[in-house]
Amino acid sequence: MSGIQGKVVAITGASSGIGEATALLLAERGARVVLGARRAERLEALAARIGASGGEAAWTCTDVTRRADLTRLVELARDRYGRLDVLVSNAGVGPISALDDLRVEDWEQMIDVNFKGVLYGIAAALPVFREQGFGHFVNTVSTAGLRIVPLQSVYAATKNAVRTVSEGLRQEAGDSLRVTVVSPGLVRTDFADQIDPQVRARILDRLDQAGLSPDAVARAIAFAVEQPDGVDVGDIVVRPTAQS
């Protein structure tokens, strides 16, 4: 039997890309998934797709910049399924640009979604995990934080902030909780839609040539989730072989 069978997994950013692929894969392997994202119509369609394939899914509109929304997502998991085994904090934005462009509102959005959104997830799930005596945080970061390049400094900073908090959480977690960070490289998602139009064409060309399918990242997340109790997969990097 899969180590995923029967687990209750909440996923933010579940309406597309890596989050959607993760929800589909985990549900296929027997998890009961609780979907969170801002786009209600896409969540409803995804939950229906999972249900039609014999899986179990619940959903609620979730804006990770609102702490109450993360609390509601965790409560939905407990109300519907009696517990929460895993929180996958996947929601993210990346309107990258040169610092000289002074796109301060974009910087603030990345801080609010990419970093504070993960903190709000921790605040919602950690007391539940402590009460249960088990739980697993899976946080999506990025290879952008491993190799800093122009245009991505603020984006990389938010991802590295999550990496740092995740390591601190792992050390504080004790022997009953698990913490995993997954660092995807180039992935074919709608990420490029948020990018400065002056650099979008270049990014799209790179994605077309070397981008991974979101399914590749979903499989990495599934690998961490399916490990037996007492096995903590701390850090996974998933990048195209062609990516430097």
UniProtKB/TrEMBL annotation:
Keywords (A to Z) from UniProt: Oxidoreductase
InterPro entries given in the database record: NAD(P)-bd_dom_sf, Sc_DH/Rdtase_CS, SDR_fam
UniProt keyword Oxidoreductase, yes or no: yes
Top-level division of the source organism's lineage: Bacteria
Alphabetical list of Gene3D superfamilies matching this protein: NAD(P)-binding Rossmann-like Domain (3.40.50.720)
Record keyword Oxidoreductase present: yes
Family: Belongs to the short-chain dehydrogenases/reductases (SDR) family.
Protein name per UniProt: SDR family oxidoreductase
